[in-house]
Fold this protein.
Amino acid sequence: MLLWSNIRVFGDRRTDAFARLPAWRRIQPARPSTRDLILLLQREAAGRDLNQMRN
């Protein structure tokens, strides 16, 4: 479900919404990794008031 959502939202490309890659990564990957997607989801969830969603 997470990978499918990535394709729907980001068009199966790595965008500026994801964290920068380390300097040792010379080749830019075409798509974000599952770890990138999970970190982005965590960052977005931390910025929201999740208690409000429970009611």
Observations:
- The chain has a mean pLDDT of 86.
